[in-house]
Amino acid sequence: SDLHKMPHGLNGFFDFKEASEESKKTGKPILIDFTGNACVNCRKMEEYVWVKPEVLKRMRDSFIVVSLYVDDRLTLPEKEWYVSKRDGETKKTLGEQNSDLQISKYNAVSQPQYIITDAEGNNILGNEFKNYDPDENIYIDFLDRGLAAYKKKINK
What is the DSSP-derived secondary structure letter of residue 133? Predict the structure, then answer.
């Protein structure tokens, strides 16, 4: 959180493990925001969609938000490095690890990419996710369907 700030006063995380722990504590689903410092469309979503009252209310009240920067150059301590099963390369930076997660677990490389998951990172909506779309109603529908699917899953 020293490197990044959540927009619009949202409370959130920049590390999936931390978001997962919070999800377990609160019983809320996770909204993963795969983003980047150099991502123009990511900033547009934050500025024009996330700021809408109905979107912001849902994000604030119903989700654990985690923004995972795929271009973050912070070198992690060596004990946190790992060799990717996907490409056999050592992932030393936060961005490399976030990108590896996005590609290996969710089979995508675009930003922004929004995925609603449980605490284990399982996509609640199957293979569905959202990318850049400035229509707030489409984003609201995505959030509402994800929340409903999550509630159905945990109430089984």
Answer: -
